[in-house]
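Example 9 (inverse folding). The structure is encoded as follows.
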């Protein structure tokens, strides 16, 4: 192994520290000891890591072989390597830079024998692992409707991330624990027999290998004398233990992170690791990076005031040499439609005045919120992308629910049949489906007809026949039960009876919660659709189209309008997805109690603190303009919810906030009417009716105009009718009569 001289080479290293601020320079040139760099949002942590590695090599004489840098994504690792090579002007192939899993994999490939693995062991990705768990459960004759395979995957990975094998799990009378221990044990046996290693196993096996071989551990402790860790606040238990083991008594760690941006507790990240580091690593010093190069002073002051309310944090205060900037704008919407319209009109105004669409981000706490925003952007013809995800009607759980609704409406919809027949799993596999497809082809039948034929004539036998018969019966029963229901109640009943809510409700963590909320948002979409377009859609000579069929057709049309794939586009994303990104303009929507902070997180102090950190992350994504919006009424879970605005808005200093009062084409929310005036707002130039005006409709009776939008023939108004509630009406077709 090549070793560099023990003394630093006599080189000019001023280029490494030039351009750094005082705090960054302190971190980069710190003595060779343990250090925790508390890098505030936008303070240049990647810059510090890159320059620190260059400093170690050129100024301290550390061999590139002696440096290990750990990141959380392959993209970050590649960027770091490129920047180091550019700074040093030489290749650094000897340098180990990678993710936790990537480095563990590299060690296991080199030491497969010591790790008890075959030389050609195979890595399982998430889909491979799920398929293997399903195979295990079939062998154990387990009902995957009662015991969802994804739940078993979560159980296995969760215990591996905590460093626990099956043998480490306590024996008790809990049926959940007993059942999943059996699955874990069988899965582990199958993996060992087949030389299979999942992602969680990479770290656990590597940790066990180093613990079990003193010579190997001593070798790597001598080699990696300098360890650098990015995003330290996101480390879980086994990652922390792995770092602690590898460093031992001689290695030195520089951990870089921000405990105020620890937002992944739901997937195992432990904010406690930052406190533990200071206690367990000898002589560890704290170096705060507080100068922000991203945001205006107003935005930073708001973020500082918010996060200061958290108790379990290392103190720091973000600041900037830049000016205060514009105030943070807060808009109180009447409902989620009004909120989406406000955001869309502000975005359009920004773009029309020279702003770049890809410099605008709309953030939300729950994926289910995106539907209303997507629709508003589509109507305004503003290009957008869903960052790191799918549009609402493209999400798997939504397509599953729509497949059931389509079958209720039309039993002969083959695509819907194939999607719904085994979701949730009911033991109807590919072999059974191929039998039905062959029958359908031979007899020019739909799959529904083929299923009936196969069951009646005995083409399918045993469990397969029983499963198909049960599915056919289920769809018929659902259809009979919802025949007379309004569309939104029909949607709710279909989703419940299909088992999709229960199925996804058992999926652990944020993913399962998001799927469940998306399904509930579909009910809200159906409810909104019921009153959205009130004018004849068919000629008298054409057969009537049911509201369900009309809804399904409209969904298909909406899904066909793709967001922009090329060119500048507004970015829509969850707050979790926004971490690490920055935008000149940010809209944070749904700032309401129960939604943000989320109702399931705000019940415990640690959960509320993580929600506040998530809000801090959202605020610090904004560079120049920040909008916070909330709605008095939001349709969630298929019903109207009346919400207080988020405590996080109340926790911001009032002098930093400007309450938005709209005029012109966009009306102020109804709350302003209630609290400030008993008079009427002026009408929009596009709409002759005033907000608050009494009107009459030939079918719905008398009502009050709540809001309006659109222009020309596309102008529509929302009216609250005493007899039927709220309806959106196309003004050109509704024939409303003004009573005042």
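The amino acid assigned to each position is listed next.
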């Amino acid at each position: 192994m090549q070793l560099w001289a023990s003394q630093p080479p006599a080189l000019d290293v001023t280029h490494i520290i030039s351009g750094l601020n005082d705090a960054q320079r302190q971190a980069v040139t710190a003595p060779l000891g343990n250090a925790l760099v508390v890098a505030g949002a936008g303070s240049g942590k990647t810059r510090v890591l890159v320059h620190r590695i260059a400093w170690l090599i050129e100024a301290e004489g550390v061999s590139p072989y002696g440096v290990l840098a750990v990141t959380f994504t392959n993209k970050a690792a590649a960027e770091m390597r490129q920047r180091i090579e550019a700074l040093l002007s030489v290749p650094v192939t000897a340098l180990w830079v990678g993710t936790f899993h990537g480095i563990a994999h590299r060690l296991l490939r080199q030491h497969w024998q010591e790790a008890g693995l075959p030389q050609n062991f195979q890595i399982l990705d998430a889909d491979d692992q799920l398929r293997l768990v399903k195979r295990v459960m079939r062998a154990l004759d387990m009902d995957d409707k009662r015991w969802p395979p994804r739940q078993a995957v979560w159980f296995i990975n969760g215990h591996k991330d905590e460093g626990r094998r099956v043998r480490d799990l306590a024996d008790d009378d809990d049926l959940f624990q007993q059942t999943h221990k059996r699955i874990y044990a069988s899965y582990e046996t199958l993996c060992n027999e087949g030389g299979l290693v999942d992602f969680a196993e990479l770290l656990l096996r590597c940790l066990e290998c180093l613990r079990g071989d003193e010579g190997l551990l001593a070798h790597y402790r001598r080699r990696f004398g300098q360890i650098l860790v990015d995003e330290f606040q996101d480390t879980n238990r086994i990652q922390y233990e792995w770092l602690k083991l590898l460093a031992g008594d001689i290695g030195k760690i520089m951990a870089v992170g921000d405990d105020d941006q620890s937002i992944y507790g739901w997937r195992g990240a432990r904010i406690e690791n930052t406190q533990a580091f200071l206690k367990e690593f000898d002589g560890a010093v704290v170096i705060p990076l507080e100068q922000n190069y991203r945001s205006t002073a107003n935005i930073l002051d708001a973020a500082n005031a918010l996060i200061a309310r958290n108790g379990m944090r290392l103190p720091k205060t973000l600041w900037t040499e830049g000016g205060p900037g514009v105030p943070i704008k807060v808009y109180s919407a009447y409902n989620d439609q009004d909120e989406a319209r406000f955001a869309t009109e502000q975005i359009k105004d920004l773009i029309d005045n020279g702003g770049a669409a890809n410099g605008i981000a709309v953030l939300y706490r729950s994926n289910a919120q995106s539907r209303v925003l997507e629709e508003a952007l589509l109507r305004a013809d503003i290009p957008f992308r869903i960052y790191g995800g799918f549009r609402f009607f493209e999400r798997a759980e939504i397509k599953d629910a729509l497949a059931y609704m389509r079958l209720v409406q039309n039993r002969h919809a083959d695509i819907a049949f194939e999607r719904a027949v085994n979701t949730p799993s009911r033991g109807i596999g590919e072999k059974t489906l191929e039998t039905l497809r062959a029958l359908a082809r031979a007899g020019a039948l739909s799959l529904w007809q083929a299923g009936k034929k196969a069951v009646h004539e005995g083409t399918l036998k045993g469990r397969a026949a029983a499963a198909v018969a049960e599915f056919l019966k289920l769809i018929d029963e659902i259809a009979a039960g919802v025949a007379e229901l309004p569309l939104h109640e029909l949607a709710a009943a279909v989703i419940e009876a299909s088992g999709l809510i229960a199925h996804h409700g058992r999926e652990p963590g944020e993913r399962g919660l998001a799927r469940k909320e998306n399904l509930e948002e579909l009910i809200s979409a159906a409810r909104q659709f019921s009153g959205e377009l009130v004018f004849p859609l068919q000629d008298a000579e054409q057969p009537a189209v049911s509201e369900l069929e009309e809804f399904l057709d409209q969904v298909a049309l909406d899904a066909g309008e793709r967001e922009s794939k090329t060119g500048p586009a507004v970015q829509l994303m969850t707050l979790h997805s926004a971490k690490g990104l920055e935008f000149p303009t940010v809209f944070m929507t749904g700032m309401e109690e129960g939604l943000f902070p989320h109702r399931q997180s705000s019940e415990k102090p640690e959960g509320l603190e993580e929600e506040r950190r998530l809000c801090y992350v959202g605020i610090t994504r904004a560079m120049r303009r920040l909008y916070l919006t909330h709605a008095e009424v939001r349709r969630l879970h298929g019903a109207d919810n009346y919400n207080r605005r988020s405590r996080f808005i109340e926790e911001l200093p009032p002098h930093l906030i400007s309450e938005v009062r709209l005029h012109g084409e966009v009306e102020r929310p109804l709350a302003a009417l209630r609290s400030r005036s008993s008079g009427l707002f002026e009408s929009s130039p596009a709409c002759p009716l005033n907000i608050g005006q009494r009107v009459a409709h030939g079918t719905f009776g008398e009502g009050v105009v709540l809001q309006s939008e659109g222009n020309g023939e596309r102008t529509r108004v929302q009216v609250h009718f005493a007899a039927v509630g709220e309806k959106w009406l196309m003004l050109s077709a509704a024939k409303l009569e003004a009573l005042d």
